[in-house]
Amino acid sequence: MLLHNAFAQEFSTYLSLGFRHILDLQGYDHILFIVALCALYRLSEWKKILVLVTAFTIGHSLTLALAALDVVRVPQAWIDTLIPLTILLTAVHNISQPGQSTTGPGRLFGRKQRFNYGIAVAFGLVHGMGFSNYFRFLLGEENSIVNQLLAFNIGLELGQLIVVGLFMALLLFADKVLRAPHREWNLVVSGAAAGIALSILLEMWAV
User: Fold this and answer.
1) Taking 50 as the threshold, does the pLDDT of residue 108 lie above it?
2) 194 compared with 1, residue with greater pLDDT
3) Nearest to 63 by CA among 52, 74, 54
4) Each residue of 3-54: pLDDT tens digit?
5) Which of 22, 64, 131, 198 stands the most exposed, by the fewest C-beta atoms within 10 Å?
6) What is the pTM assigned to this prediction?
């Protein structure tokens, strides 16, 4: 019983840490990437958004696991550069798409979609590095990390789903209330994400 309670308490602690970490506004770069990732899609394409976010999850969960096991170590300076670069590249990709940019509501795995999912996995690997040093610090000298890793990842994903839900609510408002054309919505959101990412990069390069 005591062992079960200790397991549950540890699981709850790491779940909360993962949840708060993704929603920490001081680490808004991860939130910004999720927003940029979703900006290309219409409300009718919500299934594609879910697959896209799942692909991103797979990528960053894999890197987080490898980093936690000390299989992969990447210098923090590289991580700090690569994360805003993924945001900038995603935003530029969105902006470069024509007005009818996606493959239609029913085609979850068309050629363009498979490419987008692949990009989400690849960039998810990069963002997993952003969590890895923090997570490794939390673990300390722990021998077993399965419970902690699972709980932390679930917490991250719950926070990520909240970000996606808020984004979809804003998209619904823009579409149904403001009657904003989707192309303009994509340009505004992606342009803002690109501008913020570029400013982060320029600030780092100026140091």
Assistant:
1) yes
2) 194
3) 74
4) 567 668 888 888 898 888 888 877 788 899 999 999 999 988 988 998 898 8
5) 198
6) 0.87
> What stretches of the chain adopt beta strand conformation (E)?
none
- Rounded Cα gap, residues 189 and 87, in angstroms: 12
Q: How many CB atoms lie within 10 A of CB 2?
A: 6
Task: Give the residue among 62, 50, 64, 116 at the shortest CA–CA distance from 89.
Answer: 116
Torsion angle of C-alpha atoms 163, 187, 193, 66, degrees rounded to 10: 60
3-state helix, strand, coil in the chain (%, to 5): 80, 0, 20
Rounded CA gap, 154 and 68, in Å? 15
Q: What is the dihedral of CA 132, 64, 23, 175, to 10 degrees?
A: 140
Separation between Cα atoms, residue 151 and residue 155, nearest integer Å: 6
Nearest 10 degrees: Cα torsion 157, 25, 18, 164: -10
* pLDDT for residue 175 is more than 80: yes
Distance CA 197, CA 52 (A): 21
